[in-house]
Amino acid sequence: MVSSLPRRAAERARTWMLIAVLMAVGLASGLPLGFRWAWASWAWIGALTTALLALSWFYAHVRKVDDGRIAETLHETAILVAYGPPAAALSYIVIGAALPLADDTFAALDRAMNLDWPAWYRTVHAHPGVASALSLLYHTSLPHIGVMLIITGLIGRTERTRELIALLIATSLPMVAISGLLPALSAWVHHGLGLEKAYHLAHMLGLRDGSLRTLQVGSMVGIITFPSFHTAISLVLIWVSRGIAWLFWPTTLIGIGVLASIPSEGGHYFVDVAAGALVTAAAIALSARSRSVRPVPVALARRAGG
Fold first, then answer.
1. Domain boundaries, the chain
2. How far from the centroid of its chain's Cα atoms is residue 160's Cα?
3. What is the mean pLDDT of residues 98-120?
């Protein structure tokens, strides 16, 4: 346990450095495109992050009521709170570059896989009960992250809490970059079905024509089409709950429901889901590989070296 503390501190330092780099990259890349930052809204994020870190320090060093799980959970929550807005800002900035839309390509890839998005959408919405259930499931993803973070932390599985945050970062960052290189308005827009659901469309169009240039925390919405981040969230939650039967099976059932909801309720092409799954699989594989490479304890290394 003691030997893992320096490693954990190093991992956290790298994560906080990454968040700082994201802010710097956002500022540097956003300014040439005319983006402005609503600093009052960002100050609230800074204040909340600082409060969570202060509470984490308090439970780690002053009120030691457990084995450190409360402090760990609070620290990982602070990381998530601090990471989300810069990542969202970058997703806006890359769309603001207004590269050519890839909707035609994604629709063609769906057809190449013999997947008929309009038929799927019409089938789902021919059954209002099914459509309502899928809509509800689709909107559980973000709350589910919070629930998983708290549960894994407070039951003492803080290694899973850290893994959850690390995988969300490892999947979302490449997705932000890809979404800028291959932007798409959504299957809703391309096929002309479910346009009333396209909550993101005004932001997408405003970013592309230059009329939307204010980055305000609380006003930014999910605009990534390809790959599907909801796919990543579902698969990461299932992965993180592995081996904890009472948590794994409900998470898996909800995750399967979310995956089924993504095309119709998220306006995603089927290829978006496939790409999201590939990015997530790669992130999990890299994470598992890094965990399997353990540093050799100093005393053992000295003994081996004579």
1. 4-304
2. 16
3. 97
